[in-house]
Every structure is written in C-alpha cells, then in structure tokens.
Amino acid sequence: MNDPSRKGLDAVVLNPLDELATALRHLKAGEVARYRLGDQVCELAMTTDVALCHKFAVRPITSGEPVRKYGEVIGAATSDIAAGAHAHVHNIKSLRARAD
Q1: Residue 100 lies in a domain
Q2: Is residue 76 a contact partner of residue 93, using CB atoms and an 8 Å limit?
Q3: What pTM did the predictor assign?
Q4: Domain assignment present for 99
Q5: Is the pLDDT of residue 58 over 70?
C-alpha cells in the first residue's frame, strides 16, 4: 500500500491517545524520527535503535503506567521508558496476551 499521507514519515501513530509509534524503517539512536500525531507532524530524537516494525515511546512513560497502542491499553511499563526509546517485552508487560 502506497499511502501518500505517510510520505517522509519514519513511524506511524495509529491513535492520538497512543504512547507508542511503530517504526516504518530501522531507526538509529541519535537520529530524528518523523511521525504524524493527528494533523501535526512531530519530530523526536531517538534514544535507542529501533528495528523496522518495532515500537518506541513518543513521550516518557513511567514504570507501572499503562501503555496504549491502537487507542487501547496493551500493557504496563515495567521500567521507565524515555521518549524515543525502544518499547518491547524488555520494558512492557502485556495485559492482553498472558502465558500463565
């Protein structure tokens, strides 16, 4: 799918309530990622590398805080997550998929 509204963007945020963005390419620590939040294009300096299709925080998230993607709470932070940092199983516990 070639969506012209995503041209020049490095990540996608699916809902304005989301704390997470999904990388549309490999992002390296120190570079600036561009993403759309509603009608606004935002820029954020990456604090860690983030692989293609992986998530990163678009704002600081405190340990224990609920984390949203798709406008829904998908988990809780298990440690503080800086804006621009990789967000995955190492710092988020799922509240949806459980193995216990």
Answers
A1: no
A2: yes
A3: 0.87
A4: no
A5: yes
